[in-house]
Amino acid sequence: MAAHASVQSDVHLQVGSIEEVGKLVQRLYSPGTPREIGLVQDTLQKLQRSQDGWQIADALLQSPNDKVRFFGALTFTIKINQDWASVDAASAILLLQRLLSWLVRLVAKGDAVAYDVLDHYPTTNEMIAGMSRSQLLTTIWLITTLVEEVGKVDSNSVQTHKYHERVAPNLEDTVVLLSRSLDLRVTGDEELALESVGSFQSWVMYAHRAWMDNSMSLEPLRVLTPQLVQVLTTDGMIEATAECFADILCHFPAYFTQDDFASLAAILSGSFTQERVAALKALSSVPEDMALARLLFAYGDATVQDLTKDIGESTSKQILQFLLDLMGVEGIVVAEDEICSQALEFWMTYTEFLIDSLFAAGEGKPPWMDTARQYVVNALEAAWLKIRMPPVEVTATWDSEIRAGFKAFRADVEDLLQSSYTLLGIGIFQQFANSAFESLKHHAWGELEATLFCLNALSDSIGDEESADEVLITLFGSSLFTDMTSATAIPLKTRQTAVSLLEHYTDFFERHTELLPAALNFLFDSLKITALTTLTARAIHSLCSSCRKSLVPELGAFLQQYEILLSWTIVEGSTKEKVMGAIAAIIQAMPSEESKIAPLDRLLRFVESDIRSCIDFMTAGQVEDSQMQGFGALRCLAAMGKALQTPDDVAIDLEDEVPHKTAWEHELGFQLQSRLIRCFKVVTDSFKWSGEIIEAGSHVLRTGYTETSPGPFVFPPQVTEEFVARSDLRTARLSTILDTAGAMLSRHASDASTRIDSSALVFLAHVLELIGLLEVNPTNEPEVASSCVDLADKLMPRYLNIFLDPQVQRSMRNLFIFALRCLTAAEILPKRSAADFWTSFVQIRGQADHIQRMVDGVMIEYGPLLSQALMRNIGGQAARSELDVVAEPLKKMVFKQPGSKAWLDEALFSDTFPSQSVGPEEKRIWLQKVMKLRGAKGTNQVIRDFWIACRGTSLSYAS
What we know:
Blueprint: H1 2-8, H2 15-28, H3 34-49, H4 53-60, H5 66-83, H6 89-108, H7 124-129, H8 133-151, H9 161-165, H10 171-183, H11 190-212, H12 219-222, H13 225-231, H14 238-251, H15 258-268, H16 271-281, H17 287-302, H18 304-309, H19 314-325, H20 340-361, H21 369-386, H22 392-395, H23 400-424, H24 426-441, H25 445-457, H26 459-462, H27 466-476, H28 480-486, H29 492-504, H30 506-511, H31 516-526, H32 533-546, H33 548-551, H34 555-568, H35 573-588, H36 593-619, H37 623-643, H38 667-686, H39 691-705, H40 717-725, H41 734-747, H42 757-773, H43 782-794, H44 806-809, H45 812-823, H46 828-842, H47 849-877, H48 883-896, H49 900-908, H50 920-933, H51 939-951
């Protein structure tokens, strides 16, 4: 091997050649044109990567020029990274010896010493005491790199465990070396001390894993801790030492002894820390202060239990006060203040500990709890100051990172508020409500926004507590919304948070509907603001849906407000959708079906206006605008339909045989429904190619499926039939259309519901047509194939008679073959659908004689093929995650079909069985187990074990 030869022999290139390489290296670092430097660089890179690279590296290290020597070391690195795979074990040892020899020569002007003659040299302590600064520095670099690299390899691996075994014996020598280097700090050698701190950190992090594996003692390393604590307060050493301790506290707090914690506490509670906290608060800090703050947070997290329980002691009080002070750093959080976010994390940890302690105490209460709670209150007050939105001219300068950071900080404050409610109860809610009154009194809109944000955060925590309701009655009964409606200089964010407040407290308004008018006036006024329309419309929808009965008298005003809204500006589709849904919810609460017709007529006219615009745009060739109008119109219809559904909490009179039937059959009701259907058809017929339109149209239809009595959106079945029948393989979202038909069938699946045989026949005929277009091959369109089989499955068992209809009977064979092919498809969707289909089919019993004969005949013909398809999956072709899917039809078949044993036996020994890893005896044993279980739960495990054996990943199945 070339590398072996170059390492083990003292091969020399011609002096002139090495001199030329050296000159090229020096030219690389000398002034020159970009073209000249580029040519030199290319030439040197080729030399580095050549077969002579090892020799070139070795030769360059002999140069008196430091740049040339550096290039030699760099060449060794490149060769190792590039050619290491081709270096054998013997060459690797020789290479290591060569590199160590060069390291010693470069540092000590000597040569490497053989391991077996070390006994004739001075002890490690004596040698370290006599080492020069450069020798100490180089040795620290070496031991740091070695322990970091060993830490990257698996200690449980047989091949690499030997490296870990060599670490512990070197620990004591490492401690002597680092201790000596730290001692030299008094002579002003800051670099050496800093390198020692970094090396100490690397050794402690390695010791963490070794300590967990019980392969290394921590005691030798712990000797160094007092020395590092001493240098923590030394100028030039603060940042590195603080970062080191913070890292250990975060990842390996068990390293520190009680004495170590006490020593750190003395520093972190003293004047040294006080000065730096003051600098941080005033935004006049340096990196050392930031590092100390991180140490303070890490110490707080690691000792939160002791800090809290010893809260009466001066040291704990002072550390907690410093942690609280860091919540009040000057400047805008994230943009100017980098500390507050980290401080907030500590107070989250602190609060969670208090909550755990409170629950653990049961009926009692720890004696320190009241004092500890006050710190949470203080932290929340500090957080309230930090979440206030800066002026618009400031936020306009923020980049996306600052915006995201500020938003995340507010979300974290929200989490702290929600956690703190468990500790502080209604008192903290009352405190923020009082703050809102004060801010409102002085029109301090920024402070008000921050307070409303906090009240929003607590909305889920307070529930329906009576004391909370009293506070909210006072707040919402105040001039809050009147002032915000009449004032002109309210920041957008304040209004936005107020709108959100109403959405958060919808449940309260259900209990106190007398406060709705002012709130809704404010919301409709906010709809004028483009930036708030979506949020405001959502809040209006939420309030109207929840308080619909109370708002019935105001229905006319709502319709008028919506008409005014449309005259103000161009309203976005999502806003129309929410507001129309809100108005429809009020219409639903009207006392009779007849009374709903007139307001629905008025509401529908708005949709019809949008559809006329849709047609006008289409006529003008503006297809995109036309589609947008049509999509918005369908979304509005769906919102109306959903809002008109009978609420879950409304009792249904089961004895009322004809509930409100006549209203929608008589002329006015019938005409209104016909207009709804016409709107639906105009748009869906015009945009068959638009997935969004098809999706929206499906939502319109589905709103009527859930209803148990006639209504405007309970369309005749023919509407869905036509929607399905008009589709083909080119139609967008074809699967959505088929799933919509399935939803309609599910609604009419029970014996108590109305039969829709004609619709079932249309759906089955369409499925058979699509299967034909797919050439009975599910792989052509897996998603469509899945939906076809799903729809066929929905026909069982109520509409099995349709399978015998002359219109479809000739093509039924294609359905069963298609369902079998889906079962062996590579894609999970058709496989899952086919498994469901066959699971339903094989267990059909108790049907009328002519239907049952058809079912039995199908099983006689396709039972063997179904068994083959199942065994191909179980025999190894299925993925592990698919086994439970294919297990279901097998279990039902074994339980319900008398011929299943013969079918499965034939499938196991047929040419279609995919595995050669199991023999005849194993197959027979497996079949016996399956038949004995008769579809019981244990079948799944038996299938899984057999699948593993068929895959060849187990020694034997027959056990």
